[in-house]
Design goal:
Elements lengths: L2 H15 L12 H10 L5 H14 L3 H5 L3 H8 L5 H19 L7 H5 L6 H12 L8 H9 L8 H11 L5 H15 L13 H4 L2 H11 L1
Helix pairs in contact: 1-11, 2-8, 5-6, 9-10
Length: 218
């Protein structure tokens, strides 16, 4: 089956099985989403949602956060992975938002990527979910599923993003990003997964891929 044909069927199944997904990170606006996405690197969404209430009670906007000591930020988020680095990044980006962007999170990919702790994936999530700009954030989970389904060649996340953007309509990228994440959690885990019984892998994955991952499970 050609990639384009697979993409059509994948999207149909995602609409059927997942529907309209909600953003998994609790937030109130672009700034709190930016901070939450930054925290989610090497940390589960569940853990992020556990620590952000205390953090946002302390400060929920750039001006307030810029006045909070790094140590206080760290105390709120210390159970997240890479907490020391993230604490410093949150403090620095808050100050930069005040000094260079009028205290407003910029709706601009390039400007977002200049902020401390904000990479391409984080910027893409903010652009798509805070501002509604079509983007296709690709993390390791989406990268893995795209490779399993034969929609990309498993080279790297940059190439996977390019491949997915070519296969799916731009107006659906924001929804698809979340749908694939939810599908992976519910039906297509990284380990111990039987591809032959998966609603998508069972027909989208090649026999070689199924055999390869079957060997890994043994």
């Amino acid at each position: 089956m050609k990639r384009a044909d697979k993409a059509v069927r994948v999207q149909e199944l995602l609409d059927e099985l997942i529907g309209e997904p909600e953003i998994p990170l609790d937030h109130q606006d672009a700034f709190t989403l930016l901070v939450a996405v930054l925290l989610s690197a090497q940390c589960t969404d569940e853990r992020v949602n556990m620590v952000t209430p205390a953090l946002f009670a302390l400060a929920n906007n750039p001006l307030a956060m810029s006045k909070v000591a790094v140590e206080e930020i760290h105390a709120c988020i210390k159970s997240c992975g890479l907490a020391p680095q993230k604490s410093k990044a949150i403090s620095k980006l808050s100050k930069l938002l005040i000094d260079e962007h009028g205290g407003v999170v910029p709706a601009d990919m390039t400007k977002l990527e200049t902020l401390p702790g904000v990479g391409h994936k984080t910027a893409s999530v903010v652009m798509s979910q805070a501002f509604g700009v079509p983007a296709f954030p690709v993390d390791t989970h989406i990268h893995r599923l795209a490779a399993r389904w034969g929609l990309s060649n498993d080279r790297n996340v940059v190439q996977t993003e390019r491949d997915l953007k070519k296969l799916f309509p731009a107006e659906d990228w924001n929804k698809l990003h979340l749908q694939i994440i939810y599908f992976g959690r519910r039906f297509c885990p990284a380990r111990g997964h039987d591809l032959s019984t998966c609603p998508i892998c069972s027909w989208a994955a090649t026999k070689t891929r199924i055999a390869k991952e079957t060997v890994k499970r043994r």
